[in-house]
Structures are given as C-alpha cells and as structure tokens.
Amino acid sequence: METLPLLLTLAAAASVYLLWFYLLARKLTGPKVWPVVGSLPLLFMNRRKIHDWIAGNLRATGGVGTYQTCTIALPFLARKQGFYTVTCHPKNIEHVLRTRFDNYPKGPDWQTAFHDLLGQGIFNSDGETWLIQRKTAALEFTTRTLRQAMARWVSQTIKNRLWSILDKAVAEKFSVDLQDLLLRLTFDNICGLTFGKDPRTLSPEMPENPFAAAFDTATEATLQRILYPGFLWRVEKLLGIGAEKRLKKSLEVVETYMDDAIEARKENPSDDLLSRFMKKKDVDGNHFPISVLQRIALNFVLAGRDTSSVALSWFFWLVMNHPEVEAKIIKEISTILTETPEDVSYIVHEEWAPCVLASSYSRVGSVSRHSRVSGVCLARLCIARCLQETTSRKSWVGLSSFPLKAILSVLGLRLAAKVN
C-alpha cells in the first residue's frame, strides 16, 4: 500500500513529461527526437559522416534551392536546454558572423577545450584579444613585403620540390597521393610564412616531420574534446590516459619546435608573421609573451594548412572530371600570359572554377558559436520557429557551410553559364 502513492506519483510525472515532450517535439525541425536521449542515438550512428547527416537534415526542412535551419536535441552535450541550432541560411550566417558578431562568441566550453592547443590565438579568443590579432593579420597580409614573402615561399616550394616529384612520377609511371602532396606543400608554405622555418615535409623522400606529426595528433585529440561530454576529457586529462595523454606528449614536441623558432626570430628578425607579432603589443600595452606568441603562430598554421590543401585537392579533382573546363582554363591562361604576362586579372575561367569549388565543397564544414545574450534570436531573419525556441535561451548555434554543395543551382549553375 505504501508503494501505491509512489507509483502514482511516478506515473503522473511520466505523463507530464511525455506531454511536454510531445508538445516540444512538434515545434522542432531536424532529426528524430526520443524522450530523454533526444537525437543522441542518431548523432552516434552518423558520427563518421556528421556533415552529410547535418546536410540531409537541413535539406529536409525545405524545398530545393533553399537555405534552412534545424534544431538538434543533444541532452548532456549541448548546454542549457540541450538544443543545438544549425543553420545555413545566408542572412542568419551574416547575422552571426557580422551584424551581431559580438553576441556570438566561441563560448566558454569551446575555449576551454581548445585552450591547450590554441591558447588565446585568433581562433580561440573573443573581444579585444581577437580584434587586435584580426587587425594585425589583416593589415600584415595586405603589406607588400608579406605578399612578396608569400610569393617567394610558394614559388620556391612548387618549382624546386613539387614539380620534381610530379616529373619523376610521370617519367617512372607511378601514381602519387595528390592530396598528401598538397598537404605537405601548404604545410611547408604556411610554416615558412608564419615563422620563417621550412619543415621540408615536401621532398622526394617524403619524410615524416616530428612537428607535423605532433601537430596532427594534438589537433585530433583536441577535436575529440568537442565531440564528447566535457567531464570525460577532463577525467582523462587528470588521469593522464587516452587522447589526453597523446595530446600532452604532442604539445611538448610542438612547443619545443615553436620555442626554437621564436628564439631564432629574436636573434634574426625577418618578414614573417611571427617577427611582426613580436613587435606588436597586447590590449594592456605589453609585448606578447612567448607562450602567447606560440599559440598565435599555431593558429595561423592551422588556418593555412588544411583549408588550402583541401581546396586544392577538390579543385584538381573537379578539373580532372571536367576536361572541357580544363581545356578552357589552359587555353585562357596561355592566351593571357602570352599577351599580358604581368596581368592575370582578366582570367575568367580560373576565377570561375574556385567559385564553384567554394560553393560545392566547403573547406570548413561548420562553425560553432555560443549565443551570449538572452532574447536575441535569429527568428526575425528566418521563418524557422526553432531558432526562436533555442537561440533566445543562450544555446549553441552551428553555421554549416557543408550543405551548400546541395544548392549548387544558387551559384554554380549561374556561373556555369559563363563557361558554356
């Protein structure tokens, strides 16, 4: 008899919860939601094709050729109410990254997870710390000396190493992993541009560079912190096991390499980014300490390595599969360089190809932001009601650029008309 009131209470609570869940689920657009676990089972099942899964959910929310928004319920992972809002609506993206940029910082969870690798670098900072790095980088990348240094590094690496490897492959008739070659190419270039030190990973011997390997390991281990609940990686870090153990060892290699690069630049300043940031001051008017300079440099290495190599890989893959476009690009380049070798600004097809590439195969699959101020939502810019239900509650917002390949008609077909 004593258990009867308890059972009735539990039944009433379960009924209230299920009613609340039913009413809530009707408002959400996105993957299927189950009581208690939300969309976690589907997230786990699609973890190896996460961007395709998100793209499918976004496409399912609207008609062909539209940019949509959906909400993914991730209890225990997404903070606050457990909602993660994903959008690829251009107005929403502009709202988050430009119009109300100050309201969508990286967020404490993101910054904590990436702090060991990126510190207070441009990819892991907000406010004045981010702004001073952004302004410095934007200014320096427009200076003539840095552009000349960039051209020098790229030209030397392509002529002296990449071409020799490809020529040897043609002469001896063996295949090469083009994506690996381009990854090595961009890594050597960005390292030279950032701190004036060439790791020479692109060479006929194809050596394994300790710094490059450690950087890869550290990046992979850091990304795992985002994919799983925060307490898991904190326990691993405390116990020194699993991915956190690999992260610690790889960071030791990375920091040693960066210390040597910084010491070299102190003795012999150059025109690279590290030398330029060593002359700058932080928000308090002090020169950046060595630990901050390390992370600033690593942020630029991360920015210029994978993104460029992935874009180049997709570019050559697309050109290989469209020989008619390849022929027009070659013809046009040859014509322009013959008539005006100093001016390539009139090349149409070579400009068109990267545009289609950018719209079809994004170099960065998604960007995560944290809604800081309660009451500011994206619903005013988009018809999706789920945005008002989530972003007005200080939740996570994901900007997914990967699904844009599904709407090639918005840009690609229009540009394709120029080629035909």
From TrEMBL:
Presence of keyword RNA-binding: no
Pfam families to which the protein is assigned, alphabetical: p450
Keywords: Heme, Iron, Membrane, Metal-binding, Monooxygenase, Oxidoreductase, Transmembrane, Transmembrane helix
Ranges annotated as spanning the membrane: 6-25
Molecular function, one GO term: iron ion binding
SUPFAM superfamilies listed in its UniProt record: Cytochrome P450
Signal sequence interval, chain numbering: none
UniProt-listed Gene3D superfamilies: Cytochrome P450
Entry cofactors: heme
Family: Belongs to the cytochrome P450 family.
Entry protein name: CYTOCHROME P450 FAMILY-DEPENDENT FATTY ACID HYDROXYLASE
Species the sequence originates in: Salix koriyanagi
